[in-house]
Design brief:
Length: 244
């Protein structure tokens, strides 16, 4: 579903954000990408949605080499890959319902289709009762749930959650992770980037560890307390700091 083949990203100032990173995420997997701030997690997300291009290497999403997707069709890739941002990136001047509707309108759905899918998404994410509220009236957890609803609007095959619990209290963070697990059990491939492993140590997941732009560990799906099937990538992280 998601394949990185020796992918490197070097920014214009010479900063190496990712260094020959290779991994494969299978259909329906829940994958946790961990590492401290600056390890390359956000760069990885931007590469997956073709917001930036790799310096070298190949990225395959749902069987497509994304380097071969012309700019005019990038929106089609982004329908396959939904992104949940740490700050939710909501439209503050629109209601909860309108925040979801606008994505569906851009996709060209009919009014009846928009209403049905929006209602289904708000029900799934547990915020149907807030449909007429504005983002400023939502709690942090509710705002993140709306961000998830927006990310799911295109019915993506892959959902990338970039530090989705970063601004939340522990109880709310666990609720959001539980929601992501529920979404995963319904067949969506989920990649979750985080620097805080306390919230995800109990989850059975494929685990990738980034350290200063280098993939230092790639383990098969297992509970965080177990070390079975884990392997260290035979490469040490360089000393210099890397950009996220």
């Amino acid at each position: 579903m998601v394949i990185f083949d020796s992918v490197s990203k070097i920014y214009g100032n010479g900063t190496v954000a990712l260094d020959k990173v290779s991994f494969a995420v299978g259909v329906g997997e829940f994958t946790i990408i961990s590492g401290p701030s600056g390890s390359g997690k956000t760069t990885l997300m931007k590469l997956i949605i073709k917001d930036i291009a790799p310096t070298s290497g190949k990225i395959v999403i749902d069987g497509d080499d994304i380097s071969e997707i012309p700019p005019k069709n990038t929106h089609l890739l982004r329908r396959k890959v939904g992104v949940i941002f740490q700050d939710a990136k909501l439209l503050e001047g629109k209601t909860v319902a309108e925040n979801v509707d606008i994505v569906l309108e851009i996709m060209g759905l009919s009014d009846s289709e928009i209403i049905k899918r929006r209602n289904d998404l708000l029900e799934l994410t547990g915020i149907a009762q807030h449909s007429a509220d504005f983002p400023s009236q939502l709690s942090g957890g509710e705002a993140q749930r709306l961000g998830i609803a927006r990310a799911l609007s295109t019915q993506p095959k892959v959902l990338f959650a970039d530090e989705p619990t970063g601004n939340l209290d522990p109880a709310t963070a666990k609720e959001i992770i539980g929601l992501l697990q529920d979404i995963n059990t319904q067949g969506t491939t989920v990649l979750m980037a985080t620097h805080d492993l306390d919230y995800v140590k109990h989850i059975k997941a494929h685990r990738l560890v980034l350290t200063k732009g280098v993939l230092t560990s790639d383990s098969a799906a297992h509970h965080g307390s177990s070390h079975h099937h884990a392997k260290d990538v035979d490469k040490e992280a360089p000393d210099e700091d890397k950009k996220n």
